[in-house]
Amino acid sequence: MDKVRYAEPSGAAGGRVYVNGEQYFDGVPPAVWESHIGGYRVAEKWLKDRKGRALSYDDLTHYQNVVAALART
């Protein structure tokens, strides 16, 4: 995983969270990306803590669960 960045949505769908130049998580609402806990943007920090390593299938599933949990709050 390289640089993490958020691309704002172009329509009603959520934005994209890029983990490198080609791969991304799609459908992440801006409110989820901006969610803060303890002064940290949760969706961003979780990925940045894993910078420089390949994300496993379990990592991808966990991140999707984090995003879904933030969307419900």
Strand content: 15-25%
What are the low-pLDDT stretches, counting only 5+ consecutive residues below 50?
A: none
Q: What is the tally of helical segments?
A: 3
Give the C-alpha Rg: 12 Å
- What is the oligomer described by this structure? single chain
Strand order of the largest sheet: 1-2-3
Number of strands: 5
Helix % is 25-40%
Largest β-sheet summary? 3 strands, antiparallel
Q: Strand pairing plus helix content: what structural class? A: alpha+beta
Count of separate structural domains: 1
GO biological process, one term: methylation
Pfam family, one: Type_ISP_C
Organism: mine drainage metagenome
Keywords: Methyltransferase, Transferase
Detail the topology: elements first, then pairings:
Elements: E1 5-7, E2 15-18, E3 24-28, H1 30-33, E4 36-37, E5 40-41, H2 42-48, H3 57-72
Antiparallel strand pairs: 1-2, 2-3, 4-5
Helix pairs in contact: 2-3
What report would you give on this structure?
- This protein has 73 residues and is α+β, with helices and mostly antiparallel strands.
- It has one domain.
- It is built from three helices and five strands; from the N terminus they run E-E-E-H-E-E-H-H.
- A three-stranded antiparallel sheet has the order 1-2-3. It has a two-stranded antiparallel sheet with strand order 4-5.
- Strand 2 and strand 3 form a beta hairpin.
- The protein starts with a strand and ends with a helix.
- The model has no long low-confidence stretch (mean pLDDT 93).
- Keywords: Methyltransferase, Transferase.
- One of its GO terms (molecular function) is methyltransferase activity.
- InterPro entries: Type_ISP_LLaBIII_C (IPR041635).
- This is Adenine specific DNA methyltransferase.
- It holds the Pfam family Type_ISP_C.
